[in-house]
Amino acid sequence: MLLIIDRLYRTVSYIPATVICGTLPLKYEITIRAATYEAVKGKNVGTLILRKEKINCEDIRTYKAKMYEEAMKQWQKDWIESTKGEWTEELLKEALIHNKICDFYISQGLSGHGTFGSYLKKMKRREDEMCMCGTSIESSAHIFKECERHTSGGPVTLNGHEEETLNYLKRTVEKLWKEETQRKFH
């Protein structure tokens, strides 16, 4: 579902995909809903995934808010501990719920999966992974932080939660996409 919503490649791992999409991992959503349902019925709410002790709240809204707070902390912990999505973690340090839907190009920029030489070679879509600048392997980090062909006009610091960075990622990946298409047919 996350891959479809934000047009991510199927090679993007689950936790980085949740962060890019700004969607709480499903296990936490299910836990919150189940615990809230049990609390409404007046049953003793178990620990499930999030809590080691019972939350004492008189009102269900407060209870649900506390459960979301705990889920957000756990999601951030999962994100920090994840060994997947190093590039995404560099751009999106915080796991935040948002309703921004990325387009095809921004998703590639945030995930590092897409029209980058290193990715294309790994997927056997290109024979070499060198950047057209000739100085390095064409990775997302190289393109967005080092490559003189792309970094001019970009933000000083990259933060995937800021519009300036998202616009830069989009422009750059669109340009890479066009270059790759021309490269294929020449």
How would you describe what is shown here?
This protein is an all-alpha fold. The protein has helices at about 1-5, 15-20, 25-40, 60-80, 85-90, 105-110, 115-120, 140-145, 150, 165-185. The protein folds into two domains: about 1-90, no CATH class; about 100-185, no CATH class. The longest helix is centred in the middle third of the chain and has 22 residues, at about 60-80. The chain is elongated, with a radius of gyration of 20 Å. The protein starts with a helix and ends with a helix.
| SS-derived structural category | mainly alpha
User: What is the 3D shape?
Assistant: elongated
Could you list the spans in which at least 5 consecutive residues all have pLDDT below 50? none
> Portion of residues in helices?
40-55%
Domain count? 2
User: Strand percentage, roughly?
Assistant: under 5%
Put simply, the count of helices is: 10
Helix-strand string: HHHHHHHHHH
Distance, first to last CA: 36 Å
Mean pLDDT over all positions = 88
Largest sheet: none
Count every beta strand, where a strand is a DSSP E run of 2 or more residues.
0
Query: Rg from C-alpha positions?
Result: 20 Å
